[in-house]
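Sequence, please.
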């Protein structure tokens, strides 16, 4: 496992690591700038499949973070990448928003409601009972079942709301078919991200705030793992799991080069 001073490429989660409730976290803007100035390959990862990279880049910009759209890797992009490798030029029935439909179109897929090769369930704010019923019937008719990510709930201004994992579970109950889930904690999402920037596991680190997605997937992908405490994890949460990250930091500000020099001198 690489030490931090051997890391040449970086993958980082977005929410809870770089931003919290649309506010940049301390050190995030400086770290992204440092990577950009030094030509360090990096990608910002998110399991959210609602938005396109262009949308997310604009949202991050409004939070004070400069992340070009080609530096963003979503579960929708990873799903399209996986499906293109499985069946180039295939067809799909999609429950989801622009993030997943755009990614699939750009990967050469055709959207159809008639005998699709795949049924793809992604994040959406408007799950339709009619669309879920159609998905169930298509899967029972032989379509392969894919979900962009396993998150059962997502945040909203009024509290938690059902997300991809919850809708996929409903379809599983009705069909007896489990989806193949591409997003975190599937390490495939990290492998496809590394392929995009030409990175190798021996010299790549993953920064995340969740033990059950970011850290476990990073470990399984053979990456140097860094847990930051600016998201949902606390000491009690960390202690629940049988695995540990390589490093636990207060936040990404501790990764700035000045902090690295100081920690090396200790």
């Amino acid at each position: 496992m690489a030490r931090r001073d051997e890391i040449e490429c970086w993958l980082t989660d977005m929410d809870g690591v770089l931003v919290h409730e649309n506010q940049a976290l301390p050190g995030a803007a400086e770290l992204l700038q440092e990577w950009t100035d030094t030509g360090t390959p990096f990608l910002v990862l998110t399991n959210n499949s609602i938005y396109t990279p262009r949308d997310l880049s604009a949202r991050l910009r409004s939070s004070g973070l400069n992340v070009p759209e080609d530096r963003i890797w979503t579960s929708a992009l990873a799903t399209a990448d996986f499906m293109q490798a499985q069946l180039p030029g295939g067809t799909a029935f999609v429950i989801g928003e622009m993030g997943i439909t755009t990614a699939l179109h750009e990967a050469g897929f055709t959207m159809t409601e008639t005998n699709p090769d795949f049924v793809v369930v992604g994040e959406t704010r408007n799950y339709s009972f009619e669309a879920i019923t159609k998905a169930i019937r298509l899967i029972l008719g032989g379509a392969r079942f894919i979900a962009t990510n396993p998150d059962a709930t997502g945040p909203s201004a009024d509290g938690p709301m059902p997300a991809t994992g919850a809708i996929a579970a409903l379809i599983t109950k009705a069909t007896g078919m489990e989806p193949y889930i591409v997003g975190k904690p599937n390490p495939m999402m990290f492998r496809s991200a590394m392929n995009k920037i030409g990175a190798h596991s021996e010299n790549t680190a993953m920064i995340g705030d969740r033990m059950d997605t970011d850290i476990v997937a990073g470990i399984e992908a053979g990456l140097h793992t860094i847990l930051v405490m600016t998201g949902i994890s606390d000491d009690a949460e960390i202690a629940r799991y049988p695995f540990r990250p390589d490093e636990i930091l207060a936040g990404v500000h501790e990764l700035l080069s000045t902090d690295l020099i100081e920690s090396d001198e200790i």
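The longest strand covers residues 9-13.
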